[in-house]
Amino acid sequence: MFGYEYGDIGDGRFRYATLKIGGSEVGGIGELDSSLPAEVQAHWSVYFAVEDTDAAVAAVSGLGGATVRPAWDSPYGRIAVVADGHGAVFSLISAPAESS
Question: What is the pLDDT along the chain (100 residues), one digit of tens a residue?
Fold first, then answer.
């Protein structure tokens, strides 16, 4: 109905599929794994792609927001979880560094 294609990027530790439109990733759906406490309920999160995660975190802080989880490197890019000045939580992600 929506024209999505799915791409599986799970790695055996977790199940995760990307949602693609016209070959571009626009979202994802993942399964909470057994490493999380049982009281963690299903939830959703929004990610915004940025050029530089650390600079974007600094900008959020400078505009009255807060860091919820400091930036870390993942196979999919550098990610941080932040909140705006009203407490709305979202994630920032920049593309992984190119291997040389």
Answer: 677 887 777 777 777 788 888 877 777 777 777 777 888 777 778 888 899 999 999 999 999 999 999 999 987 789 999 999 999 999 999 987 765 5
Q: How far apart are CA 82 and CA 99, in angstroms?
A: 27
- pTM, 2 dp: 0.70
SS3 letters across 1-68: CCCCEEEECCCCCCCEEEEEECCEEEEEEECCCCCCCCCCCCCCCCEEECCCHHHHHHHHHHCCCEEE
Please report the domains of the chain, with CATH numbers, ordered by start residue.
Answer: 1-32 (no CATH), 45-100 (3.10.180.10)
